[in-house]
Amino acid sequence: MRLSSLLMIVGTFAVAAVLSLVAANLSVQLIEDSSEIGVRDALDEEGMTWAEVQADGLQVTLAGIAPTEAVRFAALSTAGTVVDAARVIDDMQVEAAAAIAPPRFSAEILRNDAGLSIIGLIPAETDRDEVLDRVRAISGQLPVTDLIEQADYPTPDGWNDALGFALTAMERLPRAKVSVSAGRVAINAITDSAEEKTRLESQMRRATPPGLRVSLNVAAPRPVITPFTLRLVKDTEGTRFDACSADTMASRTQIMNAALAAGLTGPGDCMVGMGVPSPRWAQAVEQAITALAELGAGTVTFSDADITLVAAEGTEQADFDRIVGELENDLPEVFALYAKLPETVDPNQGPQEFVATLSPEGQVQLRGRLSDENLRNVADSYARAAFGSDAVYMATRLVDNLPNTWPVRVLTGLEALSQLSNGAVTVTPETVVVSGNTGNPQASTNIASLLATKLGEAQEFDIRVTYQEKLDPVAALPTPDECEAEISNILTTSKITFEPSSATIDASALGTMDDIAELLQQCGDIKLEIQGHTDSQGREEMNASLSQARAQSVLNELRARRVLTSTYTAKGYGESNPIADNDTEEGREANRRIEFKLIRPAPSAPEGETTLETLAGSGDTDSEAAAETEGSDDEQN
Question: pLDDT tens digits, residue range 467-484?
Answer without folding.
Answer: 887 777 666 678 888 889
